[in-house]
Predict the 3D structure of the following.
Amino acid sequence: MKIASAEQMRQIDNEAINQFGIPEIALMENAGHEIAKEAMNLCKDIAIARQSYCILAGCGNNGGDGFVAARHLMNNGAKVKIFILGNTEHFTPSAKINYKVLVNMKAEIYHIVSERDWNRLQISITFSDCIIDALLGTGIHGQLRENIKKCIQIVNTSNRPVLSVDMPSGVNANTGVVESDAIFATTTITFGLPKIGLIMYPGCKHTGNIIVKTIGIPNDLLSKEDIKQEAIDEAFVKAHLASRADDVYKGSCGKVLTLAGSTGYTGAACLSSQAVLKIGAGISTLISAESLYDILSMKNTEVMVKPLPEILPGVLGDSAMENIKDIAKDFDVVLMGPGLGRNDETCQMVRKLAIDLDKPLVLDADAIFAFSQAPDELKKIKQMPILTPHLGEMANLLHITISDLKDNLWEIARKAAEYFNAIFVLKSEKTLVVYPDGNIFVTTVGNAGMATAGSGDVLAGTIAGIVAEKLAGKMSAPVGVYLHGLAGDLAGENGQAGLIAGDILLNLSKARKQIDNK
């Protein structure tokens, strides 16, 4: 599913109104009706005549959605109290219309001004069955006003179900950033398309269950090509990962050559090369320094291991170049970097090799470090490479600070992908896959237990295996990211603490099966 920024969603709303002729008040009516239905669903174990709702409303269209919901809930027999924060002289036109309807219905409406009003709000929340948060929606800009922060704090300590409208108040719709306080919702009902802030950390921790309703917006507007963000979910993977034919053989399922490992880092080489097979590729061969051969061959059974001439024990250099290029001729994909080491000669070899090879490349870890010494060399690679850096490696490649990268992550990532003509898999709490055309895909799976040594090595091998199998085409990187995250979730079902990379590795085939069986 595509995801939108606040500005993109406002543009979609404007086009629905001005180009398609859908009145804004009709969109608000549809939104409010959906809010009321979901609120009643949260209270479905209580008879409707006994249901009690506390609606917190601002003066924008988000508040207007809340006013419509209040009307529908009242018409269904529920008890409703509406508390308004903000200057009612600043009502948007559609919100003002629906506010007047509630006044005419003699609804219980309170404007929070005095301490007495705050006490009334506290009592109302205490005795409500559900709180509807229609304060801010996508309209947050900078720091929250003190009265909004106070309201949020009351809600978050209420121990009541909370239904947030479009966004939990306090969460930035474009970034997921929470400057100070934000509602912790039980459910967030969002309209048109999910917003970026619902997907990214820390905003995603505030959303609860996310429900998306299109409220009558034409599908042509919701699927526009200039919306260049998309969530990587199960539906995405099923749409882009073709089924394996019955008459395949190991050679037709993809062959991956992994250049990895150095003294002290043989584990990275094993995890990445084994992940290639666990995700579905047919052949995985690991090449590394000859003094590591005995260790690597003992650690691997299904992965074939080949030794390379070394310049120092466990260290590769130019002497291995021709051997590698000769071996690589028989492979569909080359993965370079996991645990390879950062010797100057090794780095020079990696850069030369990546430029000389005319086949799909996945560059991870130390291979990315090698290019950080000469970033423009990346542009010389013949086929668009896939790079899998964490934020520290990305910042190092671009010669900026991690803080600067985080402050403008999406825009910097887009510019880097275009400049280097490369696909970037940016590993973080919510891994991003960024393409040179500006498209960004955001994963929806994975957990904190995956922040463990070797997890990135497994990811690199997973992506390489998916690329080699050729069943996901141009979408191999996001498909690989999803399957890796799903494997992590399966591994973490019995607890995230103590989860190790090997657990993720062992669950890759289960993740693949879960997708194939649906």
Q: What stands out?
A: Residues 24-42 form the longest helix (19 residues). DSSP finds 21 helices and 17 strands in the chain. Residues 147 and 309 are 69 Å apart (CA to CA). The mean pLDDT is 96.
